[in-house]
Amino acid sequence: MTGTAATTGEAPTTREAPTTGDFAFVDELVPGIRWDAKYATWDNFTGKPVDGYLANRIVGTKALCAALGRAEERAASLGFGLLLWDGYRPQRAVDCFLRWSRQPEDGRTKARHYPNIGRAEMFDRGYVAARSGHSRGGTVDLTLYHLATGELADMGGDHDLMDAISHHDAPGISQVEAANRRRLRSVMDACGFDSYDCEWWHYTLKDEPHPDTYFDFPVTATIPPAAVVPCGG
After folding, report:
1. Most buried residue, 2, 121, 164, 196, by CB count within 10 Å?
2. 10 catalytic, yes or no?
3. Catalytic pick from 73, 105, 151, 199?
């Protein structure tokens, strides 16, 4: 899903917070990149804006931004652009996912996002994590779009489709969709990212600057200096 390729259930290491200069809005450091921060909108598997997302912006460490800049250039050489769906994710948003998973099923988003599993199974199957790599600031959810038309590339499933069809080597998708998944994976791998087997859209920076720290400052129109502190669990 959405972010998950992180360790599950482990207590984060608490250490001195980095300065706000370590985090930035991706679009400010990677000019021209497109984004749609799904968890700041009603268009996500919970069916409403998620705790901690107060603005439709994508935040990440400067290291993440630099790597995405290289990825954007590499994708452009192939005729594609990058569209970001999520970057840094506050721990409070992950906690919100946990609370949501324990609520009775209302069916509003099930058909689109988790048609073949129950809410609680999202965690067991690795689509959602109690400690997400997104909260470390070094993970991103994204897809490709065609530079010539602006249309999204066919990927064989939309963002946060928590189903086996979203696995990188899933059978049942078309040759074009499989090729586009391989193309995205090749671009991201060449620019320093690791993929996540269960989600074709999810990538984590190999040399992320905060591999053991999970943050909880909200995503706002500006990144508040006093809010950048590690989540103590």
Report:
1. 2
2. no
3. 199
